[in-house]
Structures are given as structure tokens and as C-alpha cells.
Amino acid sequence: MLKKPNWIILSLGGSIVVPDKIDPHTKIFGVGIDRNFLKKFQRFILKWVKKGKRFIIFVGGGKTARHYQKEAKKLRIFNQKSLDWIGIYATFLNASLISALFQNKTYPKIIQDPTKKIITNKKIIVAGGWKPGWSTDYDAVKIAKVYHTNTIINLSDIDYVYDKDPDKFKDAKPLKRISFLEFFKIGGRKWKAGLNLPFDPIASKLAQKYNFLVIILKGTDLKNLDNLFQGKNFKGTIIQN
């Protein structure tokens, strides 16, 4: 499924980097960086770099972005462009952390413009958001076009796309392979700042236009991701025309 000469495009959910946590001592709900996952993710990526793979990793704003956007609204900041910029800067913060994980193995700058090809001998490129109204999922699709790669792997906090919200409906069914049209029926076609979907609908429309493949799987299950890279059976949802 993954062609050897191509870059592997990963859209890493910010909610995996900075998940919701409950302090075991105070029982206070908040957000915290998942150091345990990041150490494993670092080893995993470097293992595949040694095998000759190259990665472009887009990092979302996740819970960090949504926390700031929520507080902004409490301060009566409702301008959509302003809320988007808050989210974009959250992606820079998360992306800077991911980039630092790989030190001299990564391209030294956080990529902002996904329409420009980077000429580098580095094996890892890390990117954040770019423009208001565009998610990092959308940016990942844009850069996939530039690098002639037709697959975007979305590392989410869910193992599959479901036919309805599994947190609300116990009878929600996992979907292993669906069309973009079916995906739109589940999540809609519109984007707004702080949207919490496994893959942005605007990005999905662009991927549909380009006839790309989007794979959604649980990002913290690195064994499962390893299976995907090896061409083995894996848990996840494939979205395609």
C-alpha cells in the first residue's frame, strides 16, 4: 500500500500529543503531554527511518487548541479568523515538541506552507497549521499532492470511524472501508475552528477530488501502525472514492 520511494504523510492528532488527563492526586481534569507515547513514537519513527522511510508529520492543535479557543469564547472572542489563528499557533507549539524529539534527524524549521516542496536530505519533516479555515488534515492533503503521495495516514484517538458517535451510542458500528460520500454523511461537509472529527471534512473533499486514500487508525497503537507499514492486516478505516 505504501510505495517505497514516496514520503509517508502522517497527520498526528494533537489530542494524542496532549491528551485529556486527570491528576491522580488532585482529581483535577486538565491537559498534559503524553511523554510515554512520545518516547515510543520517537523510537518507532527512527526505526523506520533506518529502514529507508521518510516522513512528513503534520501535528494538530488538539486539546491545546480547543482549550484556548474555549477560553477565548468566554472572553467574548467569537471572530472565526481569530479562533483559527489561536488553533494554528497551538499546532506550532505541538509541532515544535515533535520536531525536537528527532533533533538533527529532522528538517530544522516547522513547515507552514504545504504547497512548497522542501529540498532536503533530512528524513523527517514536521509541519503545523498554515491558514485560517484550513486544518492540519487539509495541509497534509495539500502536501501529499506536492510530494506525489496518494495516501494520508491519520493518527487519531479512535481505532475506527464509526457509523455514529460511539461515546453516545453503544450500538455504534466500526467501519473498515467507506467512501468519502459515506464519510460526509457521518461528519458533515463543513469546517469550523476546534472541530473534533477523525478527519476534517474540507480535507476530505480535497482528498476526494485528488482520488487519494485516507487511513484512519488509533495513533497510540504503534504495533498496529507497524502492521500497516509492513503490509499486514491492521485495525482502522480506509476512506476512498
CATH class: Alpha Beta
> How does the overall form come out from the CA principal axes?
globular
If helices are DSSP runs of H or I spanning 4 or more residues, what is the number of helices? 8
Strand order of the largest sheet: 5-4-1-6-10-11-9
At the fourth CATH level, what is the homologous superfamily?
Answer: Acetylglutamate kinase-like
**Would you identify the CATH architecture?**
3-Layer(aba) Sandwich
Secondary structure layout:
Layout: E1 8-12, H1 14-17, E2 20-22, E3 29-31, H2 35-50, E4 55-59, H3 62-74, H4 80-102, E5 124-127, H5 136-146, E6 151-156, E7 161-162, E8 174-175, E9 177-179, H6 180-187, H7 201-210, E10 213-218, H8 222-229, E11 237-240
Parallel strand pairs: 1-4, 1-6, 4-5, 6-10, 9-11
Antiparallel strand pairs: 2-3, 7-8, 10-11
